[in-house]
């Protein structure tokens, strides 16, 4: 592949370009029409004191930046605001997430939980655990842990589901949630110094398909869309990813899904990604490298089979995380993938795989 402009042939005239640079590959993000760079900026490590280095990624044609209201307790959004100021709003597709939606709902359910006698509380916990076991949500080979509190989040999600199912969905909650989410969005926009985001994701980390059936979510997102503060809707998914992605696609009101996708969970994810993209959803991959190269401060030992699988698929010698990105890059249905851009050196290493096509060995 040469240094010319690389694009995905979408066959659609409804496309929108930003920061188009030679040498970068762009792919259409589903029905949004956004032509996004094949590698995008994960804003989790940004803050208003540490952001300047991503200028190099933007110079190279990266045009999508992701953050969330809870990353760094808001400091990430402030860092994204600095990036926007540095690069110009018209060069970037900006995504943030309503991180507080899920914990706010959990807190409302915990108020019910605390009002119940001890035996009923224990029955709820037991039902939630049984449900997880029956559905095989955390069974080996299906569930892959990609961040430290993931197990606890799944258990809490199913517990919240049981409480809502047994004690009814509280209608009075809708106005409370709407008011809280309105406040969070306005604060996020203020931190970033922009009056709109291109994609707003909610929930941030969907835990189970039934959670996505909550009519409150699309109603809130549609209100924000009509106000002009968001252009498109999305969600992120770390756990029970195949079922959650299929459910989100079938519901039809999400434009984009940010999903954990890598060589580790590939077997369960390839067909759901086909299903979602066929229905017009755009896919952003995350956790592309963490399955084989988790952050050092997690102190996790990576199972040897994961590294062996990646090395067998791509025998070429290169750094493990870069090879993991290269593997994801081969899937044309993935519009972009979140990259850990933590220094200019890492930016150059990671972007070196853009436009490369390799023959993946059978594993």
What features would you describe in this structure?
This protein has 363 residues and is of the alpha/beta class. It has 2 domains: 39-101 and 172-299 and 319-351, NADP-dependent oxidoreductase domain (TIM Barrel), CATH 3.20.20; 103-166, no CATH class. Helices cover 42% and strands 15% of the residues. It contains 12 helices and 11 strands. The strands form 2 sheets. It has an 8-stranded parallel β-barrel with strand order 4-5-6-7-8-9-10-11, surrounded by 4 helices. Strands 1-2-3 form a 3-stranded mixed sheet, with no helix packed on it. α9 (266-278) links the parallel β9 (256-260) and β10 (282-286). α3 (101-115) crosses α5 and α4 (118-135) packs across α5 (150-166). The radius of gyration is 20 Å and the shape is globular. It starts with 5 loop residues before the first strand and ends in a 12-residue tail after the last helix.
Q: What amount of the residues lies in strands?
A: 5-15%
CATH C-level category of the largest domain: Alpha Beta
- Based on CA atoms alone, the radius of gyration comes out at 20 Å
Helix content: 40-55%
Q: Which fold name is given in CATH as the topology of the largest domain? A: TIM Barrel
Helix-strand category: alpha/beta
- Note poorly predicted spans: 1-11
How many distinct beta strands? Answer: 11
Number of H- or I-type helical stretches: 12
């Amino acid at each position: 592949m040469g240094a010319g402009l690389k694009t995905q042939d979408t066959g659609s005239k409804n496309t929108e370009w930003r920061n188009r640079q030679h040498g970068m590959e762009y792919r259409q993000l589903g029905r949004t029409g956004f032509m996004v760079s094949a590698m995008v900026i994960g804003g989790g490590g940004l803050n208003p004191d540490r952001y300047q280095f991503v200028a190099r990624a933007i110079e190279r044609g990266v045009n999508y930046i992701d953050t969330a209201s809870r990353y760094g307790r808001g400091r990430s959004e402030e860092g994204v605001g600095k990036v926007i100021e540095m690069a110009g709003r018209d060069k970037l597709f900006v995504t943030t997430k309503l991180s507080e939606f899920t914990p706010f709902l959990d807190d409302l359910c915990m108020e019910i939980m605390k009002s119940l006698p001890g035996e009923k509380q224990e029955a709820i916990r037991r039902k939630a655990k049984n449900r997880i076991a029956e559905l095989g949500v955390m069974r080996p080979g299906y569930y892959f842990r990609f961040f430290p509190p993931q197990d606890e989040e799944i258990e809490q999600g199913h517990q919240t589901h049981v409480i809502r199912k047994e004690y009814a969905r509280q209608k009075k909650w809708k106005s409370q949630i709407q008011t809280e989410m309105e406040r969070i969005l306005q604060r996020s926009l203020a931190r970033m110094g922009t009056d709109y985001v291109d994609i707003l994701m909610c929930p941030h980390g969907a835990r189970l398909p039934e959670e996505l059936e909550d009519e409150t979510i699309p109603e809130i997102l549609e209100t924000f869309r009509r106000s002009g503060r968001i252009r498109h809707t999305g969600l992120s998914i770390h756990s029970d990813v195949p079922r959650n992605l299929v459910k989100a696609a079938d519901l039809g009101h999400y434009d984009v899904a940010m999903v954990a996708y890598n060589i580790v969970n590939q077997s369960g994810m390839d067909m759901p990604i086909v299903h979602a993209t066929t229905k017009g959803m755009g896919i952003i991959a995350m956790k592309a490298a963490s399955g084989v190269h988790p952050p050092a401060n997690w102190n996790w030992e990576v199972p040897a089979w994961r590294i062996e699988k990646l090395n067998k698929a791509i025998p070429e010698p290169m750094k493990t995380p870069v090879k993991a990105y290269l593997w994801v890059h081969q899937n044309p249905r993935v519009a972009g993938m979140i990259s850990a851009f933590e220094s200019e050196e890492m930016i150059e290493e990671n972007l070196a795989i853009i436009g490369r096509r390799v023959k993946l060995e059978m594993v």
